[in-house]
Design brief:
Blueprint lengths: L20 H28 L5 H7 L20 H14 L1 H21 L2 H12 L5 E4 L9 H4 L3 E5 L2 E12 L6 E8 L5 E7 L5 E5 L11 E12 L10 H36 L1 E2 L2 E2 L4 H30 L4 H26 L10 H13 L4 H13 L6
Parallel strand pairs: 1-4, 2-4
Antiparallel strand pairs: 2-3, 3-7, 4-5, 6-7, 8-9
Length: 396
C-alpha cells in the first residue's frame, strides 16, 4: 500500500498500513478535519472552559458519526474496530476534550442504545443522533459512587404502571448540560437490578449543572445531574438491559476506546515536543542534538509504539468476537500509565514554555489526568486483570 507524505512521525512501525484502503481514506479525512476545523478553536475554548457549540455543525459534515453502526450512518457497512480505535486516537491527537465530546455521543450514548435498545428504539433515536441533530450523554458515575457503582448505585427507579420514576444524582456527565438524550442508569427498587433509561431534554425533575474549576478536559461540559421524581415511559427504558452484566458489555467496548484516546494524547504531546526540539536552540544548536533530549524522545516513541501494538491486537480480538473484560482493562491500565510518562517527558522538553497554553503541550499534560482516571482507575482495572490471571478476586 502506497503511503502519502502525511503519515504520522509517531507511526514508527507503520501501523496505519494495517487499515484497508477505504478505511485509511476515512482516517485521513478525519485527520484533515481535526487539523483544519477543530485545532484552531481548542486553545481559546480550553482557556475559557467553554464548549464551542459551532463544532457540532462542523461534525455534521465530516461523515464520522455512526461509523460502527451498520445502517445508521453515511456508510453502508460498519467499519472495523481498528479504524474506530484509530479515529479516537486521531481526534485526541488534536484535542482530548473534543474527542471526549464525540466519544460520549457516538460511543457511550449511541452504543448504549444500539446494544441495549430494541429494534424500535434504535430506529427511533439513532438516525437523529447519527446526523448529530440530537446529541447524547451517558449518566453512570454518581457523586458518592465511581468504581463501586456496579454494586452501590444509589440512583433508583420505581415502576408505576406504564412509567418509571427516577430519583438520585449523577456526576461528571459529559455533554449533559446540552444533550437531547441522556442515558441514565438506575437501580430498580423491585429486583435490585440496574436498568437503563433514555431521558429527554426538558423532562420535568431533570436538572444538569455544569461543573466549574476543572484543570483538565475544560472544553467538555461535565455536569452534576439531579433527578427528582423524573417520570420516564416504559417505552423509553432500554429493553435489552436487565442487569449490570448487560451494562458491562457496553463498558467493555468503551474502555478500550479510552485506551486509544490515551495513545492519541501521547502522540499529540510527542509531536509537539519533537517539533520544538528541532526549533529550540541552546548553546548554539537545536536541543534535538542533545543526548538527554533524544533519550526522552526515544522513550516516548517506545511507549507509543508498544501501546499502539497492544491496541491493534485488542481491535483484532474485538473484530473476532473473543474480546473480554480483562483485555480492555489491561489496555486501559497500561496505555494510560505510559501516557502519563510521555506527557511529562514532552512537557519537560519544553522547559518553562511547557506550562504555557500557547505551546499546546500544557493542555495535553493536564488532559492526561482525566483520561488516566475515567472508565476505571488503573487500580480497578489492575484488579480485573489480576482476577483473570490468578483466579482470585482481590476486590473488597
Amino acid at each position: 500500500m502506497d503511503r502519502p507524505d502525511d503519515r504520522l512521525t509517531a507511526d514508527f512501525y507503520d501501523y496505519e498500513a494495517l487499515l484497508a484502503d477505504d478505511e485509511r481514506k476515512i482516517l485521513l479525512g478525519a485527520r484533515e478535519f481535526m487539523t483544519t476545523e477543530i485545532k484552531p478553536l481548542v486553545n481559546e475554548y480550553w482557556a475559557k472552559g467553554e464548549f464551542p457549540h459551532e463544532l457540532i455543525a462542523k461534525f455534521r459534515g465530516a461523515g464520522l458519526t455512526a461509523l460502527p453502526y451498520e445502517g445508521y450512518g453515511e456508510h453502508p457497512a460498519a467499519v472495523s474496530n481498528l479504524l474506530t480505535g484509530m479515529l479516537a486516537m486521531e481526534m485526541t491527537r488534536t484535542d482530548a476534550s473534543v474527542a471526549t465530546f464525540f466519544g460520549v455521543h457516538n460511543g457511550l450514548a449511541m452504543y448504549s442504545i444500539h446494544s441495549g435498545g430494541s429494534p424500535e428504539q434504535r430506529d427511533r433515536w439513532l438516525p437523529a443522533m447519527a446526523a448529530m441533530d440530537k446529541i447524547g450523554a451517558f449518566a453512570m458515575t454518581e457523586p458518592l459512587g465511581g468504581s463501586d457503582v456496579a454494586g452501590g448505585m444509589r440512583t433508583t427507579a420505581r415502576r408505576e404502571g406504564d412509567a418509571w420514576v427516577l430519583n438520585g444524582a449523577k456526576r461528571w456527565i459529559g455533554n449533559a448540560t446540552f444533550a437531547d438524550y441522556v442515558v441514565v442508569w438506575a437501580r430498580d427498587l423491585d429486583d435490585d437490578q440496574v436498568k437503563g433509561f433514555v431521558v429527554e431534554k426538558g423532562t420535568p425533575g431533570f436538572a444538569a449543572e455544569k461543573i466549574e474549576g476543572k484543570i483538565a478536559f475544560r472544553i467538555v461540559e461535565n455536569a452534576e445531574i439531579t433527578l427528582t421524581d423524573v417520570r420516564v415511559p416504559e417505552a423509553d427504558r432500554l429493553q435489552r438491559v436487565n442487569s449490570f452484566r448487560d451494562v458491562a458489555e457496553i463498558l467493555r467496548a468503551t474502555r478500550g476506546g479510552v485506551a486509544w484516546q490515551a495513545l492519541g494524547l501521547m502522540i499529540g504531546a510527542y509531536e509537539l515536543a519533537l517539533a520544538h526540539a528541532g526549533q529550540r536552540e541552546q548553546f548554539g544548536r537545536p536541543i534535538a542534538g542533545f543526548q538527554l533530549v533524544q533519550d526522552l524522545l526515544v522513550k516516548s516513541l517506545g511507549n507509543i509504539t508498544a501501546s499502539w501494538g497492544m491496541l491493534v491486537q485488542l481491535a483484532r480480538l474485538q473484530d473476532a468476537g473473543v474480546f473480554r473484560d480483562e483485555h480492555s482493562s489491561l489496555a486501559k491500565a497500561f496505555v494510560t500509565s505510559r501516557m502519563r510518562e510521555v506527557v511529562a517527558w514532552s512537557r519537560e522538553i519544553f522547559g518553562g514554555n511547557g506550562i504555557v497554553l500557547d505551546h499546546g503541550v500544557a493542555r495535553f499534560f493536564a488532559d492526561a489526568e482525566a483520561i488516566y482516571s475515567f472508565e476505571g482507575t488503573r487500580e480497578m482495572n489492575t484488579l480485573i486483570v489480576g482476577k483473570a490471571i490468578t483466579g482470585q478476586s482481590a476486590f473488597v
